[in-house]
Amino acid sequence: MPLEVIIDRCVRRGIDCIAVTDHDKIEGALEMQKLAPFKVIVGEEVKTNEGEIIGLFLKERVPPLLTAAETIERIHQQGGLTYVPHPFDRIRGGRLKEEVLEEVYEGIDIMEAFNSRTTLLRDSEKAKAFGRAKNMPLGAGSDSHTPIEIGGAYVEMPDFEGPNDFLDCLREGRIVGKRANPLVHVPTRIVRTLKRLRGL
Length: 200
Known about the structure:
By secondary structure, the chain is α/β, with parallel strands linked by helices. The chain has one domain: Metal-dependent hydrolases (TIM Barrel), CATH 3.20.20.140. 37% of the residues lie in helices and 21% in strands. It is built from 7 helices and 8 strands, in the order H-E-H-E-E-H-E-H-E-H-E-E-H-E-H. The protein has helices at residues 3-13, 27-35, 68-77, 98-104, 121-133, 162-171, 185-198, and strands spanning 17-20, 39-48, 51-56, 81-84, 110-115, 138-141, 153-156, 174-177. It has a 6-stranded mixed sheet with strand order 1-2-3-4-5-6, with helices on both faces. The protein starts with a helix and ends with a helix.
């Protein structure tokens, strides 16, 4: 999505803070931070060799295909926070393997308890229960790949300054959102297939 489209959609929906977490890149997030009239958290959805982990409050890109533990360390080394997206989504690939999650949970700062693109509600409930059992702050994300999805899920929380304050405020937050129509996955799969065919 063009950054201007994202900004316009956020302004229209009254969203005053977003985390931009492109796959294995932070350039878009850095550019968005310069353009947006609201707060932007620089993030990256990192493809580890054991599943995906999001880094938030990043200053530099984390390389893909490291182990989950190495990825967590790289994120923390630059003062960032670790966030596990769609952890128990059985339909979607890319989730962090459950046995790995159990091994590295002490290095995870935030558990995503609701993701708009998670089709089965019980998978979201399992993520929420896991996060609560480990006393983690719970997050939510629209996981937007198209403009219409922006704002599908979010957390209402106090304003914050920096990563540590963010965690404290997140604990006070309230998750709001609804599941997206499962058909939103179709355009994503088409784009992914086209990229593979073009060798990108």
